[in-house]
Specification:
By secondary structure, this protein is of the alpha+beta class. The protein is built from ten helices and seven strands. The strands form two sheets. A five-stranded antiparallel beta sheet has the order 1-2-3-5-4, covered by helices on one side. Strands 6-7 form a two-stranded antiparallel sheet.
């Protein structure tokens, strides 16, 4: 059953009969030019963190004989992504629930950063929910999968690090064409996610996307706090999306603050 489709693959649900569980199959749209060494490096990084409860579990990879396409075998998220989850459940969430949701994301990102991995594309559709537990998905996919499915050094590779949703992208991305993302780039996107959990709404709803990058970079546009948000939580996400990457907290600092709320 088709679940979704991204920039690099089709996602379907399936039953793993011998194990008695439901899984997700993410099939790469174009496996014709896969570089085996890059693919192996990407899979090695997946295995480094897939043990964590707040990171989507990776079970392995297979190749469909008829189509010759690779498919990653992943944990199935029975409640969709964070955007979908908030649309259905937000009105029933208490602040204790929202803080736990934020902690789920932060704990997953803490593991990635400890392993010296950068997500590069944090947004609400890359956070999946399974039995009310939030899990980070598609980490590194923006850059590493593009590299793994190309054996050339064309412009696609050179710009792969900039792939992402504008609403969650730091201002530096719009200032420098060859901007290289860092852990602080992830922290910026995390700040937007923390706001989204507090509001239950997508960021910058109603603002035309072609104008959004200009507003974020030139006008320092950020979302307004939601009434009733705990002050320290509000201050935290505002620190995360600070214009200056050096002023954003690291993931350890974010974790320490959230655990005290």
């Amino acid at each position: 059953k088709k679940v979704g489709k991204g920039g690099f693959g089709l996602v379907e649900s399936a039953d793993w009969n011998s194990c008695g569980i439901k899984i997700a199959l993410k099939t790469l749209l174009d496996s014709s030019s896969v570089d085996e060494n890059s693919m192996n490096e990407f899979l090695k990084n997946l295995k480094k963190v897939s043990f964590h409860p707040n990171i989507i579990s990776f079970f392995g990879i297979s190749k469909e004989p008829s189509s010759n396409k690779y498919a990653m075998v992943l944990e199935f998220a029975n409640q969709g992504n964070l955007r979908e989850y908030l649309a259905i459940h937000f009105n029933n969430l208490q602040w204790s629930d929202k803080i736990q949701m934020a902690l789920d994301i932060v704990c997953g990102l803490k593991c990635l950063h400890f392993k010296h991995m950068i997500h590069r594309d944090l947004h609400a559709k890359n956070i999946l929910v399974n039995n009310n537990r939030l899990m980070i998905a598609d980490f590194g996919a923006s850059k590493q999968l593009t590299e793994a499915t190309s054996n050339s050094t064309n412009s696609t590779n050179s710009t792969a690090d900039g792939i992402g949703m504008i609403e969650y992208m730091e201002p530096q991305r719009f200032e420098f064409i060859n901007h290289k993302k860092t852990k602080k780039s992830d922290i910026y996107g995390l700040g937007v996610l923390l706001w989204e959990i507090s509001s239950g709404s997508p960021p910058f709803h109603g603002i035309p996307r072609p104008l959004l990058c200009t507003h974020i970079y030139h006008n320092n546009l950020r979302e307004n706090p939601i009434e009733g948000t705990p002050l320290r939580y509000q201050q935290l996400y505002q620190e995360c999306w600070d214009n200056d990457p050096n002023l954003r907290p690291d993931i350890e600092g974010v974790y320490d603050i959230l655990t005290k709320l």
